[in-house]
Structure formats: structure tokens, C-alpha cells
Write a structure and sequence with these properties.
Chain lengths: ~80, ~150
């Protein structure tokens, strides 16, 4: 499969991103090759205020690098600055 | 064990889980909901967690704390709406002697605050709300953001 192919991924949102997107989870089709491209595309579409450099990303419930390739059926979660404790 | 709970935490049950005959020391840290943050009066507070990853990362931190030569460690973090004064997070550690338990307990809560995907939304007296720590890294200031740019340290 070429990285430019269209794939369906699941994106979950939390905290500020959930508020700005207006929902907690969605399935979407994308041609983005990496998780960073996907964030930048969604940021443009939904006006997310957080820069990718200030957040983290998880792929299939593991922290991942921004350069990771997106694959069919991946679960992507963008992680705003945490504030537990 | 690290867990997330949307109901009040049973402190005594947790304490029993680290009580072992080899232990001569028990140290606990309790994080409570404070009535103010950065000079603003907090009226309500809510925690949200990315549970799958929070539990994985929390367990990893408790594993890492074994380097301090402790016996047992447990942590529970609340989610959902909490009242002022309520218990938000608890870390309990047992060890043969007190020094190891003190050091490990501080290490665990510090790492949890840094690494575990849990978020806190505060509501203030003036009706505004804020996701704590999320004002940094914004492309631009948003009108609903109650904290002026640069006001956080």
C-alpha cells in the first residue's frame, strides 16, 4: 500500500481538543502519510489552538513519534499538555 | 497498580494493599482540590483521562519506582467532577525503612503530573473555565481563555 493511499482512521479527542472539535471520537478518511500531517490538516479544518509542538500523540494507545506513518484502522489520539495530580 | 476511578477512593483499602510484613514504613501523598489557582477562585473542577494510555503510563511509573528499593506502591487518580477539598489523587508506598518510601512517593507523583494523560478543567467565580496548562502552545489567544498571555509561569 502506498503511503499516499486513502485510509480510514479513528481519532479520539480529549480536554481542550474535544471542546474545540465538539465531539470525543470520529472515524475519518485521510490521505495524510504521517500523524503530524493529520494533526495539521485537522488543525486547519477545526481551528485547534494548540501547536503540534506543544502536544503529544498516541497511536493505538502507545505514545508515538510525529513522523509515524498512518495505517488503515489506526487509532490516533492527540494529547494536550497534561494536568493530573 | 495504577488505576483511574470515577468514584471516591477507598484510602484504607489502598493502604492494606501495600501493607506487608517486611514493611517498616508507609508513606502516602494525597492531592486535594484547592479552592484557588494562580490567584483565581475555583468553584468547580473536573478531571478527564485517556484511560487506556493513562493506566499503561501509570503502571510504567510504578515499575520505575522499584529502583528506590521499595516494597509496594499503588496509585489511584480520580476523574469526573470533584468538589473543593476532595481527594483527586493518592500515592501509597511501603518500604523496609522510611527514606526509600519518601523518595519513591515524591518520584511517583512528580512523574504522574508530567507524563500521565489526565487533564483538569477549572471553573471560576466569573463563569469562565480553563483546561489547566493548555493556554501554553496556543497559536493565538482565544477570547474564552481567562488567563492573559504570559501570565502563567
Amino acid at each position: 500500500m502506498s503511503v499516499r493511499s486513502i485510509k480510514t482512521v479513528r481519532v479520539d479527542y480529549f480536554a481542550l481538543l474535544k471542546e474545540q472539535r465538539g465531539l470525543a471520537s470520529e472515524k475519518l478518511q485521510t490521505e495524510c502519510a504521517t500523524v503530524q500531517e493529520l494533526y495539521e490538516e485537522l488543525q486547519k479544518r477545526y481551528g485547534f489552538s494548540l501547536k503540534h509542538s506543544s502536544i503529544a500523540v498516541a497511536l493505538n494507545d502507545e505514545f508515538a513519534d510525529w513522523s509515524r506513518t498512518l495505517c488503515e484502522s489506526d487509532k490516533v489520539v492527540f494529547i494536550p499538555p497534561v494536568a493530573g495530580g | 497498580m495504577f488505576s483511574i476511578s470515577n468514584t471516591p477512593i477507598d484510602i484504607d483499602a489502598l493502604k492494606q494493599l501495600v501493607n506487608t510484613p517486611e514493611a517498616g514504613a508507609y508513606v502516602a501523598f494525597e492531592g486535594w482540590v484547592r479552592e484557588s489557582n494562580e490567584g483565581k477562585k475555583v468553584t468547580a473542577l473536573e478531571y478527564e483521562a485517556y484511560e487506556e494510555l493513562a493506566v499503561k503510563e501509570g503502571k510504567k511509573i510504578l515499575e520505575e519506582a522499584r529502583k528506590f528499593n521499595i516494597l509496594k506502591a499503588q496509585c489511584v487518580h480520580r476523574t469526573g467532577p470533584l468538589k473543593i477539598g476532595e481527594l483527586a489523587v493518592i500515592v501509597v508506598v511501603s518500604s523496609a525503612h522510611r527514606k526509600e518510601a519518601f523518595v519513591a512517593c515524591e518520584f511517583i507523583i512528580n512523574e504522574i503530573k508530567k507524563r500521565v494523560p489526565i487533564w483538569k478543567r477549572e471553573s471560576y467565580e466569573d463563569g469562565s473555565t480553563s483546561w489547566v496548562n493548555c493556554a501554553h502552545g496556543c497559536e493565538e489567544k482565544h477570547s474564552h481563555d481567562p488567563v492573559p498571555e504570559g501570565a502563567r509561569s
